[in-house]
C-alpha cells in the first residue's frame, strides 16, 4: 500500500481524538441516553465477540477509544473513524427494522477498525501530521453530507482526490464483510440481519437520491460482495427473525430526534390519530404511539403526550421486553412537565435497572435530574454518590459530569460544581474550555470564603494536567 508504512495505533488514536473533538462541538452531535444505551449495548456485545474470536488484540483495545458518537444527521450512515471512534447517524437507526440489522452494519464497521484498514488508508498520508489528516477526514465527512459546502472547505480540486484516498478498497470491504459476519454470529445476532440489511442497501441504491444513502458511496456494493453475501445467505434457514417492538420504538425515537421542526412533529403526532392504525401490526402501532408521545412532549403538548403514554401502556401490557422503555418514557415526560415527584414515582428502582440492580445510564440520568429539580438534601447526596461512582467507571462520560456539576450546584458546593463542569469539557477533549473553568475555580478560591482543601488540591493538579494536554494538542501539527 502506497509508500508509507501502516501508522501506529497511538498516532491513529491522536487523529481520532482530533476528529472527535470537532464532532462533539457540532450542533448535530447528540448524546440521547436512551439511544446511546441501545447502540453502545450492541457495540460492547460485538466487541466482546471480536475479543473471543481473536480479532481484537489487547494492545489495540488499550490504545483506542472505543466510543460511539451519535449524529442527528438523517442520512443512512455509520462510519468507522480512526482511533476506535464509531459514528452512527440517527438516519440509520430510523431506517433499520431490527437490532440484528443495526448490529450487522456495526459489525462491518468494527471490522474495518480491528483489521486496521484505517491505518492502511491514513498510513499513505503519514508524512502529514495528525491534525491535517483529521482535517481531511472531517472535510470528507462534510462532503458526504453537503457536497457544495465541503468543496469550499477543502481548497481547489483536492476534495475528490482526498475522498478517493480515504475510501476503503474492494478487498477491505470484502474482508470487513467476512470478519464482520463472524463477529455478528459470535455475538448471537441473527445472521439474516446481514442479508436483509444488504438487500435494503442494494434496493436503496436503485433509487439513490444523492445523499440519501452515503453509506453506499463509502462502501460500494461490488459484484464480488454481492456474490459473497448470496453464498452466505444460502447457508441460512429461511426468515427466522421478526422485527421487535422495542426496536420499532427506538427507531421512531431516532426519527423524532432527527426531525425537530414543528411540521414534522405535528405529522408524527397526527399519525397516532389515524383510525386505520388499530388494524396494523403491534410492532407498527407501538412505534407510532411512542413516536407521537415523544413528539407531543417536544411540542409541550403534555396532555396529549400523557394520553398516548396511557394508550401505549395498554397496548403493551403483556409485552415484557417493552416495559423498560415505557418506564423511561413515563419518567421522561414527567421530567419535561417539571414534575420531579412523578419522575421518581415512575422510576420505582431509582437509578437502578429492574433486573440487574445496577445503575443504568438512562435511568440514572433521569433520576438525578428529578432529584436536582426537587432539591431535597438526602436524595441530592445520594445522587452525587451515584454519579461519582459512574464517572469513576466512565470518565469520558461528559453528560454524567454535567449532571454531577448540577447536583453539586444544588448542594451549594460551588467549587466542586465548577470542577465537574471542567471535567465534562475535558471528557470531550476541549482542554481549553476545561482549563478556563478551573481558572475560574482558582479565582473563587483566591476570593476566600470556605475552602475545601481536598477539592482545591485536585483543582490545581487537574489544571496542570489539562495545560499539558493543551500543549500536546498545539504541538501536533
Ligand atoms: Zn465498509
Keywords:
477 residues, mainly alpha, Serine Threonine Protein Phosphatase 5, Tetratricopeptide repeat, four-stranded mixed β-sheet, 25 helices, 4 strands, globular, binds zinc ion
**How much beta, percentage-wise?**
under 5%
Profile the largest sheet.
4 strands, mixed
Structural class: mainly alpha
State the end-to-end distance: 24 Å
Total strands: the figure is 4
Total domains: 3
Order of helices and strands: HEHHEEEHHHHHHHHHHHHHHHHHHHHHH
Outline type: globular
Ligand types: zinc ion
**Mean pLDDT across all amino acids:** 87
Parts with pLDDT < 50 across at least 5 consecutive residues: 150-157, 207-212
Quickly count the helices.
25
- Report Rg: 23 Å
Spatial ordering of strands, largest sheet:
1-2-4-3
**What percentage of residues falls in helices of 4 or more residues?**
55-70%
What does it look like?
The structure is a single chain. By secondary structure, the chain is mostly helical. It has 3 domains: 9-234, no CATH class; 243-337; 350-477, Serine Threonine Protein Phosphatase 5, Tetratricopeptide repeat, CATH 1.25.40. Helices cover 68% and strands 3% of the residues. It is built from 25 helices and 4 strands. It has helices at 9-25, 33-52, 58-63, 90-95, 99-114, 117-123, 130-145, 147-153, 158-166, 170-186, 192-206, 214-218, 223-234, 245-258, 262-271, 282-298, 302-315, 323-336, 340-346, 361-374, 377-393, 398-410, 414-427, 431-446, 453-475; strands spanning 29-30, 67-71, 78-80, 85-89. Strands 1-2-4-3 form a 4-stranded mixed β-sheet, with helices on both faces. A hairpin with a 4-residue loop joins strand 3 (78-80) and strand 4. Helix 7 runs antiparallel to helix 8 and helix 23 packs parallel to helix 25 (453-475). The longest helix is centred in the last third of the chain and has 23 residues, at 453-475. The protein is globular, with a radius of gyration of 23 Å. The two termini are 24 Å apart. Residues 150-157 and 207-212 have low confidence and may be disordered. Bound molecules: zinc ion.
